[in-house]
């Protein structure tokens, strides 16, 4: 189930949200697609660099903690993140203001990377610290949390809801649209990913 919109109109055009989406798409198309493995090696975040348990793999963790927020592992990864940023980011930007929203977005991404690194060091294997982390999901999860706090009564209709009874064959599966129910914002919040999105 994917959200298609929310029921909260914005007062201003979401300049920061659109710019973040454009930068993410540009990084994917112009930098990552031509050499996905090389781009991940160079600008994805590697937790092992933080405590020196591996040699510097890429450009260094202070830089890659930021650059990794604009990188993705696949078209689906990029598309899902940008869909959620578009639907929820515009309202959070409208409520916070452009500069505060931009700062909040980056702080959310850095907090997610920090937490992912902590979890990896304390509960992961030594090899896990060498797995590159990338994606905007940490920052976008912060945006979703802000949306929930700022707009708790907003509803977010889903694109598709699939209902299947044990007595139904796959051909009899009922695919319904948003007419079933508008979901409150809390229901569409994604669960945290371990990797590749800090």
Question: Could you please describe the fold and organization of this structure?
Answer:
- This protein has 198 residues and is mainly alpha-helical.
- It has one domain: Rhomboid-like (Rhomboid-like fold).
- It contains seven helices and four strands.
- It starts with 14 loop residues before the first helix and ends in a 14-residue tail after the last strand.
- The C terminus is likely disordered.
Please count the helical segments: 7
Mean pLDDT: 82
Principal-axis shape equals globular
The tally of beta strands, per DSSP, is 4
Question: What would you say about this model in short?
Answer:
With 198 residues, this protein is mostly helical. It has 7 helices and 4 strands; from the N terminus they run αααααααββββ. The chain has one domain: Rhomboid-like (Rhomboid-like fold, Up-down Bundle), CATH 1.20.1540.10.
Note the main attributes of this structure.
single chain; 198 residues; mainly alpha; Rhomboid-like fold; two-stranded antiparallel sheet; two-stranded antiparallel ribbon; 7 helices; 50% helix; 5% strand; disordered C terminus
